[in-house]
Write a structure and sequence with these properties.
EC number: 1.2.1.3
Protein name: aldehyde dehydrogenase (NAD(+))
Keywords: NAD, Oxidoreductase
Number of helices: 15
Pfam family, one: Aldedh
Shape: globular
Helix content: 25-40%
InterPro entries: Ald_DH/histidinol_DH, Ald_DH_C, Ald_DH_CS_GLU, Ald_DH_N, Aldehyde_DH_dom, ALDH7A1-like
Strand content: 15-25%
Length: about 525
């Protein structure tokens, strides 16, 4: 029997205006959860509830809030297998990867539990006597967090954990097709002792969410917006927040390049391309988009990648597989559109394309009737091709060639995204020249384009984001505002830049010249 899931605002379930069936993409007829969807008015009301709760939550000492974060980490750790199985069931992510995703929540909590004792300000020397200057980190207020479903629990934790730690309240809108995973995560957070209203989960369609967010911003009950999703929607969110003099934290898509230099370990490079291009069925924002291969090793690299792909297992995500199904029917439909971008000047070197069926089989496939698709390697992509310039969310990787490192950097930057990147080389000069030239917010050397750690900044530039960063201490700037204070205990009014004592130098002084014997 499928789960019945409702939004929770102020600790209470809310009425729904419509329903959505979250299904298992490995077995599309299987309903994992029946989700009650709410409307714009409910989203705006949740933000008002959060604003009320936030005032008291901010008064809780930061070290105590840190202990709540520690409790969340322990609860997630104790429920890791159950949560990972639910992620696998709902979005088709291979179980081993789902376990790793859950581990990322624990790692995030482990990092931030101590930040409750390190929300440091500074004492700053004044230019005047008998005066002290200070800085403080204050919570922003209410954060509205909207997340995608390809990482239904890990990526939300990058927002929720630091936002809560810093004394903010949160209204979280997860993806409907990953609602069961999100609701389970919400329950674990609530069990850690968060007061009602500090964390609220709202299930709604995109248009209702946007309308509710617009209303809440107009009412002044949202003070920060975090969004993970497509560049197109991210642009609209950024425009909306900009009208209200806010800057959103935007983590968007990518067309992530991997440069293969002449001295690269080609077996290692092929392994990295296999994982970053086709792990999670290519449905990561950091998935490999285009392999940019030096012409001298092009054939050897492609041969290795195709061979590795042929021996990889696609199938039931509960087993030991490289990839399971696509996340949801809408992503399968979109992926089929990407396949139409393959042009006559391209060469598909990986075999069949399209959905895996009895009439379009894949050797060793055991996935049944799910939303499984053949992984595709397209050689001969050119700058300007849609396959080269645009994000393709799914198991498809393009290959092109270059002659010089400068050309490779230019190709890497050409699509205008700037999330993740990779270079395979044994030469430190090449690695650092690539790092200096590439526009990506993240660079890997001899590693895949995918794979974040909880204590490093995560985020992109250009079409991949607005320069905001998640994870590590850097995300604290998203969920706090700096406040400056001056305390004058001189007993008189001292005017900055006016009543400043000066010690006057003799700038015309010169040493007497001496002559050497």
């Amino acid at each position: 029997m499928s789960r019945q899931i409702m939004s929770v605002v102020g600790g209470k379930e809310t009425a729904s205006t419509a329903t959505y069936d979250s299904t298992n993409p490995a077995r599309p007829a299987e309903v994992v959860a029946r989700v009650g969807l709410t409307d714009a008015a409910t989203f705006a009301a949740a933000c008002r509830t959060a604003a009320e709760a936030q005032r008291e939550w901010a008064k809780v000492p930061a070290p105590v809030r840190g202990r709540v974060i520690a409790s969340i980490g322990r609860l997630v750790e104790a429920n890791a297998e159950a949560l990972a199985r639910l992620v696998t069931e709902e979005i088709g992510k291979p179980y081993a990867e789902a376990l790793g995703e859950v581990r990322e929540i624990v790692d995030t909590c482990d990092f931030f539990l101590g930040e409750g004792r390190r929300l440091y300000g500074q004492t700053v020397p004044s230019e005047m006597p008998d005066k002290n200057l200070f800085t403080f980190r204050n919570p922003v207020g209410v954060a509205a967090v909207i997340t995608a479903g390809n990482f239904p629990v890990a990526v939300p934790s990058w927002y929720l954990v630091p936002a809560l730690l810093c004394g903010n309240a949160v209204v979280w809108k997860p993806a409907e097709y990953a609602a069961a995973s999100a609701h389970a995560m919400f329950q674990l957070f609530a069990a850690a002792g968060l007061p009602d209203g500090v964390l609220n989960v709202v299930f709604a369609e995109g248009a209702e969410t946007f309308a509710g967010l617009e209303r809440a911003l107009g009412e002044g009950t949202v003070h920060k917006v975090g969004f993970t999703g497509s560049s197109e929607v991210g642009r609209r969110v950024g425009e909306l927040t900009g009208r209200h003099l806010q800057s959103a934290c935007l983590e968007l898509g990518g067309k992530n390049p991997m440069v293969i230099m002449p001295d690269a370990d080609l077996d290692l490079a092929a392994e990295g391309a296999l994982f970053s291009g086709f792990g999670t069925a290519g449905q990561r924002c950091t998935s490999l988009g285009t392999a940019i291969v030096h012409e001298s090793v092009h054939e050897a690299f492609v041969e290795r990648l195709v061979r590795a792909l042929a021996s990889a297992t696609i199938g039931d995500p509960a087993g030991d597989v490289l990839a399971g199904p696509l996340l949801d029917r809408k992503f399968a439909d979109r992926y089929e559109e990407y396949l139409t971008w393959i042009q006559p000047h391209h060469t598909v070197v990986s075999g069949p394309v399209g959905r895996i069926t009895k009439d379009n089989p894949r050797g060793g496939f055991d996935g049944g009737e799910g939303l499984y698709y053949h992984p595709v390697v397209v050689d001969g992509v050119r700058p300007g091709d849609r396959l080269f310039m645009e994000e393709t969310f799914g198991p498809i990787v393009g290959v092109t060639t270059f002659r010089t490192l400068d050309e490779a950097v230019e190709l890497a930057n050409l699509p205008g995204y700037g999330l993740s990147s990779s270079i395979y080389t044994g030469d430190a000069r090449s690695a650092f020249r690539f790092r200096e030239g590439v526009s990506a917010g993240m660079v890997s050397v001899n590693n895949s384009t995918s794979g974040a750690e909880a204590h490093l900044p995560f985020g992109g530039n250009g079409r991949s984001g607005n320069g905001s960063r998640q994870s590590g201490m850097w995300v604290l700037d998203q969920f706090t505002r700096w406040q400056a204070m001056n305390w004058d205990h001189s007993g008189r009014l001292q005017k900055a830049q006016m009543d400043v004592a000066e010690i006057v130098p003799d700038l015309g002084f010169r040493l007497a010249e001496t002559r050497l014997p």
